[in-house]
Design brief:
366 residues; 30% strand; 2 domains; 10 helices; nine-stranded mixed sheet; 17 strands; Rossmann fold
């Protein structure tokens, strides 16, 4: 690296989510966008001009035509890849073989076999692989973990992540095209709900998975239907279960609820903290008492507030994501934790999809 204090980034594609992460890199303090590549230099330049107007780098990133030319650049240490899922395997492996560290959007691959190959390529080339799950790097999770220790034995994890796509979304968004995003709502949203369950369980894998397809959609230019609304249950050892619901047909919801034998923890916005600069959650340990004819339920609720902006700040979760990734790279080491949990997430996603598309067949996890 030319500067051991700065990770030099290349952004591969002009996907909308990259705008948020352009700013995150700028705010990270240890990263800089050096170049943006797309299929045309004009498209790359337009993207750069728009991002520079909102979050300018002192050294203006250059526009590159073609992803191969981005990977050939010797002044780029890491690439951020928000390409459609159907394209990711090829370009992650090419990036790894070019010696570039990889931040990969989710879902990372079309299936776990592909993701294993991608991770193997990164490990063979001694480059870091990490998925772009921002909430894993938020300030709130550590406090949530502390609260979970105070609700008795864990028994149940429930999550929902959904938004309602309009007709334009159904007919034109990449997430409803099976070539580009074969897992639809499960891939786009389920990555977060499955990951949360794994995080709560300290990455223990469940014994079995049962999925149920609620709604599918096949548009004219899509080879296959994609999940628009899906739910699944993960069954762990010791009787712990986790259910999740993902949907492109119900309004914005992103909550998580963890139940124990003595109480429960509720997060209203576990994926993206609501605007306002405070990431919140609550712990409740209700008590029920009977005194003659007087029946009473006491809530015993405790509110927790972490000063953490929802986005666009030095200490927001997306900034921490890119800061933490760059710190690993700048240390000269790699961290196997991140590819390991990405692969587990993908394996469970595959199992949920397999079950849901086979009349809720029980899938045993080996």
């Amino acid at each position: 690296m030319a500067d051991s204090s700065t990770c030099r980034w290349g952004i591969m594609s002009t996907a909308t989510i990259g705008r948020k992460n352009w700013q995150a890199i700028k705010l990270s303090g240890n990263g800089a966008v050096v170049a943006v590549a797309s299929r045309s230099a004009q498209s790359s330049q337009k993207y750069i001009d728009e991002c520079q107007a909102a979050a300018p780098f002192d050294n203006v990133p250059r526009a590159i035509e073609g992803y191969d030319h981005l990977l050939a650049a010797d002044d780029i240490d890491a690439v951020y890849i928000p390409l459609p899922t159907g394209m990711r395997k090829e370009w992650v492996i090419r990036a790894a073989n070019a010696g570039k560290h990889v931040m990969c959007e989710k879902p990372c691959a079309c299936n776990a076999v592909d993701l294993a190959e991608m991770i193997e390529a990164c490990q063979a080339n001694n480059v870091q692989f990490m998925d772009g799950v921002m909430y894993m790097h938020g300030l709130r999770l550590e406090k949530v973990r502390e609260a979970l220790r105070d609700i008795g034995k864990l028994k149940r994890i429930t999550t929902q992540f959904s938004f309602c796509g309009d007709q334009e979304f159904e007919e034109g968004n990449i997430r409803t095209n099976s070539d580009l995003e074969p897992l639809g709502a499960l891939g786009d949203l389920g990555w977060y709900t499955i990951r949360f369950a794994l995080w709560v369980m300290d990455y223990e894998m469940p014994k079995r998975v049962i999925g149920r397809m609620l709604t599918e959609y096949k548009r004219e230019d899509s080879p296959h239907a994609v999940p628009m609304e899906i739910e699944a249950e993960l069954q762990f050892e010791n009787g712990i279960t986790s259910t999740f619901y993902n949907s492109f047909v119900t309004g914005h919801q992103q909550w998580a609820h963890v139940s124990g034998t003595e109480g429960h923890v509720y997060i209203p916005d576990f994926v993206l903290p609501y605007a306002g600069g405070e990431a919140k959650f609550e712990k409740s340990k209700p008590e029920f008492s009977v005194n003659a004819c007087d029946f009473e339920m006491t809530q015993n609720q405790e509110q927790f507030v972490i000063h953490e902006p929802g986005n666009s700040a030095v200490n927001s979760q997306e900034t921490n994501l890119f800061r933490n990734f760059a710190s690993i790279i700048l240390s000269g080491r790699t961290d196997d934790h991140w590819p390991s949990i990405a692969l587990k997430t993908q394996q469970l996603m595959d199992a949920c999809y397999q079950s849901a598309t086979n009349e809720s067949q029980v899938i045993e996890i080996s």
